[in-house]
Design the sequence.
């Protein structure tokens, strides 16, 4: 479904991605692991064109998208839930959703505002509240649901758990599992257990390169992988 | 004393006209991060188009309220597409300089097309005449200006809060990248916002045409006034623009009368005080576009 | 040596200016005088804009204030011009200290707007305090007395005035140049790029910005003091925001941050205006088009673009 | 090492062009058949550019007529026009350019007082004559006067002396003013008051005056405050677009129905009258420095007709000023027998010349022409031009309204 | 125990109701190198910002060499001898490498308002700047415009500016972020050398654990704004809580399964 081939991305003058390649098949849930600054965010941003790669190719359903404008990539069916959530401050919860609502752009409508508000009553209660005043967990929910409004077939989530309390993390995990039924997902995280639980495959990034990739089962069975790349060891 | 009420009403019509002009400037600044020096020139174009429609084509006034702003918006689209969009990513001085150049160009083109004479557009029959408030006379047209201003306040408020287009504009002003990420065609939104700002300025021009003498460079004066309004109210703040316009309207409505010796200083003094005590403006802060 | 290019250029320009009256038509002595005065104004502006990164819209306040002080001193006290100029600089310094004290508290657009507000307040005072400033007519018809220090100059002779302006502008510019090359100037450049980092190096950057603002204002005052006797008038136009816009245009046109940029910009601007107005009434149209093209295609200003090519940057 | 060459090339080519133009004109001293060149400085851009247009039309017409009749001293006449931008320093530099670069033999023009006050002191060093055709500040033929500067148009003293004479004949005793908040507005009021007091010491000049800023656009607060103060008479020195705005707003507020005398010092300017049409109320006193219908002489008849047929409207005072100035030069140059500036200046001083306003004389003491304003009451519409008629119209003889040289403060 | 050079007590910082840093205390001894680690959002940068004066703490005190510096502006703190580097490059790209260092030196020598001499003739400062550059192996690049340096060299220049202020306490914020492995080794060696010279006390944040374990005498682990653990590298390496914080804490039992 998505293939990222040897992309190099510069962040200002820092060589953030130094030849990253990924493959994601339809229906998969894949996790990107790695420490801070390893290039997880940049990889996701490069896929949606926010930090377009200087070299390499990104293909989505056989179309090359590495030079496409972000909004067109979004309309092709890739949505990003960014790291810091980037809720439109000053817009209410409902308005945040409406901005992303692709109604009228034809093609099977899975998510409607009424529908999601019904499905996620927590957001329904907050519908008229300024998005900036929500708690971290609420913002994260909103950011995910907002991404859904664009009718994605591939959902990218950048550290959906960052800074959230365990009980919220669990909720996010449940949501992720639920979405995985219908949507292909690539998410990044620093938490290994979370990745192991929700993803089938993982890539570990280190210094802008893929240091390891394989199934989460392999990773679980071989704790040394975690120790080597991710722990304090 | 009887004219106090009339002065108050008068301050209000000055204020609402200022609001209509300044709000376009502020929207363009809020979304595009461009200080548009040519905004007053677009207002002037609105007035001149009205003059052409009413005095030269002989049409009634009302259609100009539709035609002239659309024509100015079309001009704005051309400006945005061929010039302005190339400087968004640069330092703010570049767009400042570019729109200053635009001001010179439009001013001179207007002089070439319409000549230097003073032009007057008659108000429509419906809006002629005066009525009495507390013993003072007040023109019906002033009420129309107030009405139009309030329609714009309401309309823009409704647009920003009730419609998807308004939310998209606000979203684009808050976070362009994120707006793109949720599928919004941001370059088109930017063109649209600039044209929209011009459209509003032109409405100001159409409304002003029957009450202000139309002449070359009539937009140059209004631009600094608009800066004052926007700064007092708050850069990027919609309700702030309204408040700023009211404040400046009152300064004009009463300052010249009660403090004639420092009447010219007052608006700038107000502006400086606001900047020093509350740089984000009276209503500034994050939030509505 | 690449490093010596600016020196060679400056020497060549100085030589050209010193011999100018011998090879240009008489009128161009006036043009050159204006270029020099405006160049000093823009050059002083460059200290705060190009070097320190502060976009001021009120620089004409100091220019005009300097012009008024000189005009009034010549009118009422017939003091030697040199003392009038020194008084203008002192006056502009005080005004810049007062205005700057408030303005350096703000950054970016807010700073720009506050300088605009203060500049226009000075304009309003010049226009409305008629008993002092003679209002819109300004102060004109003052005599051009001796230069001072016993130096015998026929200041009314445009050629003499040109040479006097040349010497003063060159001296003042040399001081400005020295400042930009001094440790203080280095700090300013650093502040324009990254004020916070400078603070973390132990520098009170707000105080530095204020000092730069005052120096720039002082030299703008000097430029005003030269302008008033050149045109025999000081009037509110010289304080208006449109006058403030000129050094901004000139500096960006020539290349902000390059020492010679604003001088070059002033020359281009004044010459453009002189030529375009000779050939067409539509000078605003053409000036507008030229400006727009320059903004679109010469991002670093004329001099900056040329230097970039030469230096291969 | 390319920088210096590039820059000096630009500079050199610039000066080459300039030099070619300059030398051609500069050395043209009184050669047979060489054109006589007039340099004019008017406002050609921005809000007030209509005045520049009128002036240019008057100038053009006069030069056409003169050239058709064989020129001056057998030489054709040309003119070079520069935009003053309503800024003194621009006008000064323009004058220098006209003289040194374009080689004009004489200067004329100047619309605003501020520009005139700045420019006039620099004229002697240019060694040319300057005839001011519009700016009305008393100073340029008063304390700023000099040998080179003349004025053919009506100044504030002359206009206000006339105004005072008109005002004194009305019943109004309490007077106030609405004028632009710059020298012109304040001086108009001051001179009007002084002259009126001289004639009738019983009049009251009110403290409550209104000086809206120039280009104010909204005069309602000022109109209201003047109406509140309940005067008998109001002197209005607003002009141009401001006056148009004022009259329309004053109409709305019933200002003209209050029964007090209204005098507009530049109300009978054609651009104002044609913009306002019927909106200019009947029964108010308007003045102009020249009224096309007020002068009964062949030259005026010819001028008005030629102008109206060429440009479609009656000549404004500014057109007349420029037109008359060209004829004044013609007379002076013919008298001097040369275009030599010194001789022309000598010839102009004390010269009596025929203009559409009749015979006027540049006084030797201050170089002000003895011209007088026309004050008239607005009456019915002139259907041909769509403007108000003035009836009765009273044209003052310049000798009656021009203050003595001693009073002007001019020292030649 | 001697008086600590830096004594942070009960430091807290709230952002709109959220504790970015919650009641953290830390004593740093002279000549010690302390590493500050923690997963994303642990509050390390906020902690730095408060020590260096960029932010005012909500509560708590910071003392440097026994002197209370809580809430002082950055330039004063810098003058006392605390200097910091930044996570992202924060150098002056339009100046040459040497001028970058000269900025700091000029301030240090009280010449920041000196106007009537040429900076380019300022031999003592230039020589000192060259020495500083040489210590970091940048001497060959002294006359290059900083903007054109390689990323790694820019990070070194960042450190050079810090050293030029002659600090006693150096706060390094992710000195090897974005560097290639080779550059990382180079920087680590350099910092090691500087630490061994005995002139400096270091506090370092870093995500690269090899760097941390190479450099640190002592490690403070922060998590969710709080102090999670403190100890020698060995202690930290074997601390189960720390491992859990780093690998994630959700449903521990499953992760072990």
Sequence:
């Amino acid at each position: 479904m998505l293939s990222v081939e040897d992309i190099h991305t510069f962040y200002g003058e820092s060589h953030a991605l130094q030849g990253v390649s990924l493959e994601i098949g339809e229906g998969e849930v894949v996790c990107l692991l790695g420490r801070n600054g390893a290039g997880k965010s940049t990889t996701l941003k490069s896929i949606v064109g926010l930090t377009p790669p200087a070299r390499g190719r990104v293909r989505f359903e056989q179309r090359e998208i590495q030079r496409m404008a972000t909004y067109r990539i979004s309309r092709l069916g890739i949505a990003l839930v960014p790291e810091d959530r980037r809720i439109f401050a000053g817009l209410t919860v409902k308005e945040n959703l409406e901005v992303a609502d692709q109604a009228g752009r034809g093609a099977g409508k899975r998510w409607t505002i009424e529908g999601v508000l019904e499905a996620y009553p927590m957001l329904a209660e907050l519908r008229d509240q300024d998005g900036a005043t929500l708690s971290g967990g609420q913002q994260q929910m909103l950011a995910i649901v907002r991404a859904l409004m664009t009718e994605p077939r591939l959902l990218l989530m950048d550290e959906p758990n960052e800074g959230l309390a365990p009980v919220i993390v669990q909720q996010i995990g449940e949501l992720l599992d639920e979405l995985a039924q219908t949507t292909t997902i690539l998410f990044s995280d620093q938490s290994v257990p979370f990745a192991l639980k929700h993803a089938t495959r993982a890539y570990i990034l280190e210094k802008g390169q893929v240091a390891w990739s394989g199934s989460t089962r392999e990773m679980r069975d071989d704790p040394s992988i975690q120790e080597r790349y991710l722990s304090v060891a | 004393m009887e004219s106090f009420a009339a002065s108050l009403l008068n301050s209000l019509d000055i204020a609402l006209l200022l609001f209509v002009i300044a709000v376009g400037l502020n929207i363009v600044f809020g979304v595009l991060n461009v200080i548009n020096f040519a905004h007053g020139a677009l207002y002037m174009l609105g007035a001149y188009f009205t003059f052409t429609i009413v005095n030269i084509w002989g049409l009634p006034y009302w259609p100009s309220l539709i035609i002239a702003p659309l024509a100015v918006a079309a001009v704005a689209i051309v400006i945005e597409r061929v010039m302005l969009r190339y400087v968004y990513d640069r330092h703010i001085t570049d767009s400042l300089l570019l729109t200053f150049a635009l001001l010179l160009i439009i001013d001179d083109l207007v002089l070439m097309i319409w000549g230097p004479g003073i032009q007057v557009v008659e108000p429509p029959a419906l809006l002629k005449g005066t009525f009495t408030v507390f013993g003072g006379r007040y023109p019906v047209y002033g009420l129309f200006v107030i009405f139009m201003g309030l329609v714009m306040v309401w309309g823009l408020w409704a647009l920003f809060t009730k419609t998807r287009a308004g939310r998209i504009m606000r979203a684009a002003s808050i976070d362009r990248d994120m707006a793109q990420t949720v599928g919004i065609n941001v370059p088109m939104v930017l063109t649209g916002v600039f044209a929209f700002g011009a459209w509003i300025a032109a409405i100001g021009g159409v409304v002003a045409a029957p009450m202000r003498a139309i002449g070359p460079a009539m937009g140059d004066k209004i631009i600094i006034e608009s800066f004052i309004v926007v700064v007092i109210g708050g850069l990027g703040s919609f309700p702030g623009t309204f408040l700023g316009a009211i404040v400046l309207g009152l300064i004009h409505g009463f300052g010249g009368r009660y403090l004639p010796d420092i009447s010219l200083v007052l608006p700038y003094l107000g502006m400086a005080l606001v900047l020093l005590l509350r740089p984000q403006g009276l209503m500034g802060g994050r939030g509505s576009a | 040596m690449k490093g010596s290019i600016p020196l060679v250029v400056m020497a060549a320009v100085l030589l050209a200016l010193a011999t100018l009256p011998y090879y240009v038509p008489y009128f161009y002595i006036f043009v050159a005088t204006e270029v020099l005065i405006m160049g000093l104004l823009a050059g002083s502006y460059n200290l705060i804009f190009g070097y320190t990164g502060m976009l001021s819209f009120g620089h004409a306040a100091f220019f005009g204030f300097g012009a008024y002080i000189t005009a009034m001193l010549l009118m009422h006290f017939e003091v030697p011009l040199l003392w009038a100029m020194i008084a203008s600089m002192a006056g502009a310094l005080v005004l810049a200290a007062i205005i700057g004290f408030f303005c350096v508290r703000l950054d970016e657009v807010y700073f720009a707007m506050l300088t605009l507000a203060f500049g226009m307040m000075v304009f309003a005072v010049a226009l409305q305090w008629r008993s002092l400033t003679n209002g819109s007519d300004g102060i004109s018809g003052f005599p051009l007395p001796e230069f001072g220090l016993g130096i015998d100059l026929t200041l009314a002779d445009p050629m003499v005035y040109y040479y006097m302006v040349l010497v003063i502008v060159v001296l003042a510019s040399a001081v400005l140049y020295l400042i930009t090359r001094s440790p203080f100037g280095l700090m300013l450049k650093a502040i324009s790029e990254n004020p916070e980092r400078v603070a973390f190096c132990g520098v009170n950057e707000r105080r530095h910005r204020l000092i730069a603002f005052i120096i720039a204002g002082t030299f703008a005052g000097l430029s005003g003091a030269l302008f008033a006797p050149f045109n025999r008038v000081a009037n509110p136009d010289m304080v208006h925001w449109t006058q403030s816009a000129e050094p901004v245009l000139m500096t960006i046109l020539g290349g902000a941050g390059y020492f010679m940029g604003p001088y070059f910009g002033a020359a281009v601007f004044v010459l453009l205006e002189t030529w375009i107005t000779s050939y067409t009434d539509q000078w605003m149209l053409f000036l507008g088009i030229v400006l727009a093209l320059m903004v679109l295609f010469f991002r670093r200003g004329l001099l900056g673009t040329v230097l970039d090519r030469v230096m291969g940057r | 090492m390319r920088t210096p060459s590039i820059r000096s090339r630009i500079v050199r080519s610039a000066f080459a062009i300039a030099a070619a133009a300059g030398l051609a004109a500069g050395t043209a001293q009184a050669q047979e058949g060489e054109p006589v060149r007039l340099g004019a400085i008017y406002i050609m851009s921005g809000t007030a550019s209509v005045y520049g247009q009128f002036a240019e039309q008057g100038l053009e017409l006069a030069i056409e007529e003169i050239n058709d009749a064989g020129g001056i001293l057998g030489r054709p006449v040309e003119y070079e026009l520069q935009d003053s931008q309503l800024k003194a320093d621009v006008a000064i530099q323009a004058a220098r350019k006209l003289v040194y670069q374009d080689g004009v033999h004489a200067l004329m023009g100047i619309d605003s007082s501020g520009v005139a006050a700045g420019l006039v002191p620099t004229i002697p060093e240019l060694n040319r004559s300057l005839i001011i055709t519009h700016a009305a500040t008393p100073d340029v033929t008063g304390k700023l006067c000099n040998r080179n500067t003349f004025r053919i148009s009506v100044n504030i003293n002359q206009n206000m002396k006339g105004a005072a004479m008109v005002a004194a004949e009305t019943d109004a005793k309490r007077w106030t003013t609405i004028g632009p908040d710059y020298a012109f507005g304040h001086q108009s009021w001051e001179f009007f008051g002084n002259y009126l007091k001289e004639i009738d010491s019983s009049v009251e000049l009110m403290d409550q005056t209104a000086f809206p800023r120039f280009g104010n656009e909204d005069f309602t607060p000022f109109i209201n405050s003047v109406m509140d103060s309940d005067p008998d008479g109001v002197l209005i020195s607003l002009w141009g677009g401001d006056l148009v705005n004022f009259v329309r707003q004053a109409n709305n507020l019933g200002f003209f129905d209050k029964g007090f005398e209204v005098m507009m010092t530049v109300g009978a300017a054609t651009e104002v009258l044609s913009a306002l049409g019927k909106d200019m109320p009947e029964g108010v006193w308007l003045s102009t420095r020249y009224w096309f219908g007020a002068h009964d002489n062949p030259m005026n008849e010819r001028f008005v007709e030629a102008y109206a047929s060429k440009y479609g409207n009656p000549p404004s005072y500014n057109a007349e000023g420029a037109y008359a100035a060209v004829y004044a030069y013609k007379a002076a140059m013919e008298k001097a027998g040369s275009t030599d500036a010194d001789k022309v200046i000598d010839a102009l001083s004390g010269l009596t010349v025929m203009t559409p306003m009749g015979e006027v004389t540049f006084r030797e003491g201050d170089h002000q022409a003895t011209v007088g304003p026309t004050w008239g009451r607005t009456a019915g519409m002139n259907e041909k031009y769509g403007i108000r008629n003035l009836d009765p119209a009273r044209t003052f003889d310049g000798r009656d309204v021009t203050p003595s040289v001693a009073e002007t403060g001019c020292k030649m | 125990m001697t008086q600590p050079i830096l004594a942070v007590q009960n430091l807290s910082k709230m952002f709109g109701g959220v504790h970015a840093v919650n009641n953290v205390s830390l004593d740093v001894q002279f000549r010690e190198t302390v590493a500050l680690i923690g997963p994303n959002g642990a509050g390390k940068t906020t902690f730095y910002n408060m020590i260096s004066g960029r932010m005012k703490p909500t509560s708590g005190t910071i003392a440097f060499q026994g002197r209370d510096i809580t809430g002082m502006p950055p330039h004063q703190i810098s003058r006392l001898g605390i200097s910091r580097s930044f996570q992202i490059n924060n150098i002056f790209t339009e100046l040459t490498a040497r001028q970058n260092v000269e900025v700091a030196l000029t301030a240090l020598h009280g010449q920041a308002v000196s106007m009537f001499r040429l900076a380019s003739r300022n031999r003592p400062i230039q020589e000192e700047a060259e020495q500083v550059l040489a210590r970091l192996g940048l001497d060959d690049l002294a006359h290059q415009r900083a903007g054109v340096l390689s990323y790694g060299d820019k990070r070194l220049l960042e450190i050079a500016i810090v050293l030029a202020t002659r600090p006693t306490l150096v706060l390094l914020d992710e000195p090897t972020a974005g560097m290639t492995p080779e550059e990382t080794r180079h920087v680590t060696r350099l910092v090691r050398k500087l630490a061994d010279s005995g002139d400096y006390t270091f506090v370092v944040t870093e995500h690269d654990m090899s760097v941390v374990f190479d450099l640190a005498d002592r490690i403070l682990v922060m998590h969710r704004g709080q102090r999670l653990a403190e100890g020698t590298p060995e202690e930290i390496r074997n601390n189960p809580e720390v491992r859990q914080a780093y690998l994630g804490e959700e449903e521990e039992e499953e992760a072990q399964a």
User: Anything to note?
Assistant: The first helix of chain B runs from residue 2 to 32. Strands of chain B lie at 130-133, 136-139.
